[in-house]
Amino acid sequence: MPRYCVDYGEYFEFDAQSAGEIVPVLQGRHMFGGIDEDVFLRRIAIEMCEWNGGDYYFHNRDAFARSMIKNGLMEKID
Question: How would you classify residue 9: left for phi > 0, otherwise alpha for psi between -120 and 50, otherwise beta?
Fold first, then answer.
């Protein structure tokens, strides 16, 4: 199973079948994680834009994960 690392506010690693599985991981770690996933994706994308000025797509999990990778907040390490 692939391993990913995330460096957004804090560094952590997680195992997942695909990078898009970052969304439920982030929801579990975020103080606003209990909201609807579509609303959460929009909110976290806005936060990340403010964090590093990158562009984040949030129309689905995989697009969001690709945006995180492109902007250097997540990478596949194994």
Answer: left
One-letter amino acid at 17 equals Q
For 31-70, write each residue's pLDDT tens digit: 876 789 999 999 999 999 999 999 999 999 999 999 999 9
How many CA within 13 A on the CB side of residue 51?
A: 16
Nearest CA to 30 out of 16, 48, 17 is that of 48
